[in-house]
Amino acid sequence: MMLAYMDRAAAAAEPEDAGEAVTVAAAAADDEAARDFGGLVSARPAAVVRPASADDVASAIRAAALRADLTVAARGNGHSVSGQAMAEGGLVLDMRALALPRRMQLVRSPSGAAFADVPGGALWEEVLHWGVKNHGLAPASWTDYLRLTVGGTLSNGGVSGQSFRYGPQVSNVAELEVVTGDGECRVCSPSSHPDLFFAVLGGLGQFGVITRARIPLHPAPQTVRWTRVVYASFADYTADAEWLVTRPPDAAFDYVEGFAFVNSDDPVNGWPLVPFPGGARFDPSLLPAGAGPILYCLEVALYQHQQQHRAHDDDDEEDNKNNKVSAMMAPLKYVRGLEFAADVGYVEFLSRVNRVEEEARRNGSWAAPHPWLNLFVSARDIQAFDAAVLKGMLADGIDGPMLVYPMLKSKWDPSTSVALPDGEIFYLVALLRFCRGGGPAVDELVAQNRAILDACGRNGYDFKTYFPSYRGEAEWARHFGAARWKRFVDRKARYDPLAILAPGQNIFPRAPAAAAAPGGIV
Ligand code: FAD
């Protein structure tokens, strides 16, 4: 069966085969797979395969191995920005096809711990709604935006304001089912095939296709006290943020994030980014006289769980929450008066970026190109980065959020494939540009991203790119550093010896089938 549809894939001519569990769409019928959220590159596959099972994924990979030049890219929700989920002339696996809600399952360990078994193509939003609605349970670690797939974020890292405390998403996985580049389906975990397990986490899709992930679940909070405060001084902002992320868990927030914005009333780059909907207003007269071109907004959240007891206990709980928030906020050096708080539901809090999506769809910037740049910058160099980049090159803003918030390296397992800076505390810097038309040309923004990377290199900052986009082995070797690159190459040889998988990352060229003939393929 597989060979039959491989011929169609190569010819890219036949219509969708609706009669089989696996469906294959001719590329012309599926432009989606030739594009991604970034809108900067385009690569047309020979065919899009919609797998109905891990076996279908394995069949596609085995069939690709029989051709000298065929590659296979798993596509999650296509939210990459540089073609990472594309396969020029190859097969794109539409992982969303593996993500029917009925395939999520609650699993209990012998000790009673709860886990969700979810398809690799499930959206985190689907995991959230399924877990909270059916079981009152939820994962601990999220991304800001939840319409991303489990397999897509686990192939990168998966970070948000919870990462400092609960670890990134790659630190919140108990088990994976993976189809490796030799067409074998394996179940791996920290204790079973650990090398494969850790290779795949943050592995940029290079070692296998995640068809199922087992995610630890915890009782879902009921409400969230969500607070934003504003700083004029980056030194104060970072000192406070670092203090907050290094507090003991019983005296810490559940979420710490933040962003830089322009000190003006510009609706896209300035103060309107800060307050919550529903009345709170930003009063710029409260800013200190010497405030510079860029301000900073620290964003914290404390979860509250439902109490199953008497009303006065609920009052006690409310008092406890208020006291805890007050105790943590009191020593912070934000601009007094520029403080905005709200109590929101847990699901609403985690879904907060959906409003951004709705607005961006309305104004056309969701469909426009997104020349985004994501970096991890060591705390050692973040002041210099702020001076040179945020207050320097980007002092007028980027027509989108400039996230800057700290996390802890000790929450990341060094065995995963993710490349991080050296220091224990490092910052996510996410330059999330939205092009609304009338602004600078996209090429200029891409060039500015390159200039920022050059400045980081030239100034000797301890940094790594997140969602890296490099060309060729030399650049990738520099990205990983000698020891980690060697391990990455060794793992590639072990799990995808023909370099069939994730060609859109531009790391390894496809090897001819004759160069290696791993047992699993024929
Ligand atoms: P894709 O873009 O489809 O794929 C990404 C890579 O993973 C590709 O190489 C692909 O081949 C591979 N891949 C996909 N599925 C699988 C699989 N099942 N098995 C193996 N490999 C696979 N990231 C964060 O960490 N935190 C955030 O807060 C955050 N917010 C975002 C907000 C928006 C609006 C957008 C567009 C992106 C955001 N991201 C964030 C980035 C996001 O994590 C990446 O885009 C990531 O690639 C996930 O997107 P995806 O599921 O669409 O994967």
Automatic annotation (TrEMBL):
Enzymatic class: oxidoreductase
Needed co-factor(s): FAD
SUPFAM superfamilies: FAD-binding/transporter-associated domain-like, FAD-linked oxidases, C-terminal domain
Keywords: FAD, Flavoprotein, Oxidoreductase
InterPro entries given in the database record: Cytok_DH_C_sf, Cytokinin_DH_FAD/cytokin-bd, FAD-bd_PCMH, FAD-bd_PCMH-like_sf, FAD-bd_PCMH_sub1, FAD-bd_PCMH_sub2, FAD-linked_Oxase-like_C, FAD-linked_Oxidoreductases_BP
Organism: Eragrostis curvula (weeping love grass)
Domain of life according to the entry: Eukaryota
Similarity comment text for this entry: Belongs to the oxygen-dependent FAD-linked oxidoreductase family.
Protein name (database record): cytokinin dehydrogenase
Subunit structure: Monomer.
Any GO MF annotation of the entry: cytokinin dehydrogenase activity
Lineage: Eukaryota, Viridiplantae, Streptophyta, Embryophyta, Tracheophyta
EC number(s) from the headed UniProt entry: 1.5.99.12
Domain FAD-binding PCMH-type, residue spans: 41-220
PROSITE patterns in UniProt: FAD_PCMH
Gene Ontology biological process terms in this record: cytokinin metabolic process
